Amino acid sequence: MDIMLRNLCGPFSVTMSSHKEDFQAFMIPTLIMATLALAQAPKTVCPVMGDAVPANAKRYVYKDMVFGVCCPGCIGSVKKDADKVFAKAKGLVGYSLFDVVSKEAVTPKEAVASSDYKNVRYYFLKAENKAAFDKDPSEAIGKPTYEASGKCVVTGEGFKHEEAAAYRDIDLMADGKVQSVRVYFCCPGCTPKFDADSKKYATNIKPTKSVLHPIVKD
Fold this sequence. Notes:
Number of domains: 2
Number of helices: 7
Structural class: alpha+beta
Number of strands: 14
Order of helices and strands: EEHEEHHEEEEEHHEEEHHEE
Shape: globular
Strand content: 25-35%
Helix content: 25-40%
């Protein structure tokens, strides 16, 4: 049986029975390269100018998306109206901190799959999570405009926004009306406790509008 493969040099045919070693020599490095590419944070562009973001640029988190800008001047535009800037952006501008299907934190290194949607890369802990996301991305993402971050509502422990272990969305009163609020947790053990009695912990939630969170390196 002939299998047609395409590499940088174009299509070529290998016969499995007579060229098994050639097939393996091609496929193994290819699979390794694909795995390494998934394990690295993606290269992104500035949401304001569209230029490549330098590798050493400061990173921020906005609505669970990690992003950077090409120069210090651009962050002012993002702070002024982040939603407008990201809506007009072209190209891949960031990646999500969470597997938005399981609502658990995930890094590019931990991910087994990814999908790009509206200029953002989403990583997944399971292949079935990617499949669920691809069916209805907007439903999976959610994107509440209010959040409760920085202090776990279950333990009271403080944590950096980018180090949250998981999240849940809950409807709460904020600014005089019911709003969808994203609540973050300090560790995986807090989510089942919250799920079991969310009303109990809701009294500890103090929602604020979503803001930029600078990623601070220790």
